Amino acid sequence: MQDDSNGENTFEIIDKKIGDDSMVDKTESTSSMSSSISLLPSPGVSVTTIPTGNLLSNVPPPAALPSFVTHPIVVPPITQPTKENLMSQEESVSLLQNVPTTEPFYPTQFSAAIPPSKGVPQGNIPQSIPSGATQDSGGIIGWMKGAVSSGGILSKVAEKAKHSVDSMITTLDPQMREYIYSGGDLDILVASDKEIKISAIREAFQHVFGKATVTGIAAQSTNIAPQPVGFAAAVKAAEERIQIVLHQPKVLEHPAPVVAIENFIVEVGEDKWYDLGVLILTDPIKQINLQTFTQMTPIPTPIVNLAQEDTPGDYQLKWSGLNVTIGSLMANNLHVHNSEWHYALTGVSRREIILTAAKMLATLYKNIIGN
Question: Among 308, 351, 356, 360, which Cα is nearest to 329's?
Fold first, then answer.
């Protein structure tokens, strides 16, 4: 280390040889020992005479942080209300009262999932209150009660929902129709124990009256041939079925309208035979007697000829018809059940044929008792 001309200490690096390594190590060890000894107090010097400063004592204190606020914030003083301030507030209120009121503005809500053209209609929300609901009726709940009680759109929605549920249930299980729509004040008796007739009459009257209880009672004509021929024989056979039901002990105690169905054949023109049915309703209490007929189903002439050949010449009921039914012969030729030959031949089932005529009969009966 050498002193510079300016009084500053400078350091000079002197190259050393490899052979002087030992001398350098000795020198460094000697300097380190001397520095360590210099830090220790001498034996004759008291500890209190050693200065208490440390390395950080010579560091100056930190300077103040810079301020980035260019304009100081001035908080206005809180003033007490005076008479002049009160007068200005009253004038402001009077001016606001004189401003004409306008309809409130409702901003259009936009949804990312629903395009504006398919969302809620734009425009002002109607402020009118529906009939049956008042402002003190409890908000939306009161409005709903008023709409339902007044037969509004909510009652129609509820009725449609109930009808949809009932339709779903009856579609999954057709037998549930009897339990859902049974009841009410209308009881109908069917002069037959065949389900194809009972179910058609039940559906027709429940469709027209809403609810109806339909029950079948076995009844078979004995004074008319099994296969009636002509309108007169068919009507007589249906009326005989009705009389059998009306004379039942339970029916005598509680009379009810009775519906009878009788199928027959008729010749329209030369060798043109048709099958159809007659439906008769008799109400012993209201003294009502109604008749209607089903649509006609063509029958092949060879089938009618076969039924005539199988009927003996001395058959005692031959005046009213044939001893062999057309349904049994058609079922044998088409290889189906007796009640399914209409569908196999024409694509329309016998139940559908009866149902259409039964709806006409139920509507006629409803119009008569309504008037």
Answer: 308
HSE-CB for 57 with a 13 A CA cutoff: 4
**How far apart (Å, rounded) are the C-alpha atoms in residues 346 and 365?**
30
Look at the alpha carbons of 204, 209, 212, 215 in this order and tell me if their dihedral is positive or negative.
negative
Smallest CA-to-CA distance from 354 within 258, 240, 242, 278 is with 278
Which conformational region is residue 116 in: left (phi greater than 0), alpha (psi within -120 to 50 degrees), or beta?
alpha
pTM: 0.55
List the beta bridge partners of residue 188: 214
Rounded to whole angstroms, how far apart are CA atoms 316 and 169?
50
CA distance 255 to 205: 18
Q: Per residue in 290-301, pLDDT tens?
A: 999 999 999 999
**Model pLDDT for residues 319-354, shown as the tens digit of each residue:** 999 999 999 999 999 999 999 999 999 999 999 999
Residue 35 predicted with pLDDT over 50: no
Q: Cβ(116)–Cβ(110) under 8 Å?
A: yes
Candidates 242, 255, 226, 254; CA nearest to 190 is 242
